[in-house]
Amino acid sequence: MAAAEPKPPAGVAAARRLARGCWSAFWDYETPKVIVVKNRRLGVVYRSVQLLILLYFVWYVFIVQKSYQDSETGPESSVITKVKGITLSEHKVWDVEEYVKPPEGGSVFSIITRIEATPFQSLGTCAESMRVNNATCDSDEDCVAGQLDMLGNGLRTGRCVPYYHGSSKTCEVTGWCPVEDGASVSQFLGKMAPNFTILIKNSIHYPKFQFSKGNIEHRKDGYLKHCTFHEVSDLYCPIFKLGYIVEQAGENFTELAHTGGVIGVIINWDCDLDLSASKCNPKYSFRRLDPKHIPASSGYNFRFAKYYKINGSTTRTLIKAYGIRIDVIVHGQAGKFSLIPTIINLATALTSIGVGSFLCDWILLTFMNKNKVYSHKKFDKPSQQDCTLTDARGLAQL
User: What is the distance in angstroms between the CA of the first residue and the CA of the last residue of the chain?
Assistant: First the structure.
């Protein structure tokens, strides 16, 4: 007689039954219970929330933000500039080659409007500037030979010598003499500077959409030789007067010419490429970029020198230049219809409408007078007898 096959342990059998139950439940379809609540106030809240969400997505997301488009920010850009004009100072006539730095015509350049020139500087010994820390002295004992101040004008010799004017004395230094504040001459170049013209040639390219455009109109009748920029009639004539740029930035030209400053010319290319290329136009704005209300760092100036020979000796003219620096800044964004962002935002909109149901359910089950009745109708709870019977069957199977 064959031996009886051993039964699996009770725990293994229970695990198998649980696995079969889970597998069977995996193929079940579940649907939420729907309860119709005849309450006008709750219905008004529900429809109002739905309407607000719908308006948000239709007006803001799709119309304002154009979220149905694929977008690209930061176009590839090139900027070429050219300044024209002459001006006068107290001693000479200045042309473009002298007052524009650097002369290459890039996106950042400076127009000199005032200078403080120190001519005939040569290598030798002279009194240090009184603006240098610990430069004043009463005797040679106050000056240390060989001392070098990083903010000074040279190496100290150890002698205390009379200053350039007045009765004060400062320590003597070896360097380019005389020092700047001892013999500088100021000249103002800004008298005719507001009439300087600045050509700003800009081309942009959006590589994702293979779209390119420039800010100059393609004409062969010498249009650029007699036009100046106007936002309506001459949008594609990017020739600006310096006075116009400063005025649009909200600054006083005379004050700015004396102290110097930085003006930003911002070119914005926001392009909807679902429309024709003619609808993609540059928008110009102007503002001052340097902090003029902070005395310690207001204004703009820089130094350079011009060298020459006198009787075989190297001599230079040191120039401290104050000017208006122009920074041309280009930015923008292009967009074009794409199916993927459209589907994603439509799905987000349809999902968000469900927020109204969640809010009204919370009000219904929390603040309504018959909230316990609604809770009982919405959620099915097994009776105590059903629970006892289920527990008994489970124990019996074990």
Answer: 30
- Confidence at 397, pLDDT banded by 50, 70, 90: very low
Domain-located, residue 364: yes
> Strand pairing partners for 83?
198
Name the pairing type of β-strands 261-272 and 313-337: parallel
Residue where a domain stops, chosen among 289, 315, 335: 335
Partners of 71 in the beta sheet? 335
Domain ranges, residue 278: 73-128+179-335
Same domain? For 257 and 375 the reply is no
Same domain? For 233 and 364 the reply is no
Residues 334, 210: Cα–Cα separation, whole Å: 11
Q: Tell me the CATH number at 48.
A: 1.10.287.940
Q: Residue 288: name the closest of 300, 305, 304, 306 by CA.
A: 300
Structure tokens at 343: 């589907």
Backbone angles phi, psi at 72, to 5 degrees: -140, 130
**Are 293 and 305 found together in one domain?**
yes
pTM of the model: 0.76
- For 268-279, give one letter per residue: b (16+ CB within 10 A) or e: ebebebeeeeee
Rounded distance between C-alpha atoms, residue 299 and residue 292, angstroms = 6
Q: What is the CATH number of the domain that holds 198?
A: 2.60.490.10
Closest listed residue to residue 288, CA positions, set 248, 323, 234: 248
Judge whether 170 lies within some domain: no
CA distance 129 to 138: 15
**Of 335, 354, 372, which residue sits at a domain end?**
335
Dump pLDDT digits (tens) for 305-343.
999 998 888 999 999 999 999 999 999 999 999 999 999
**Residue 232: how many CB atoms within 10 A of its CB?**
5
Averaged pLDDT for residues 152-159:
93
Number of domains in the chain: 2
Q: Take residue 272 and report the two structure tokens written for it.
A: 């909807």
Neighbours of 10 (CB within 10 A): 10
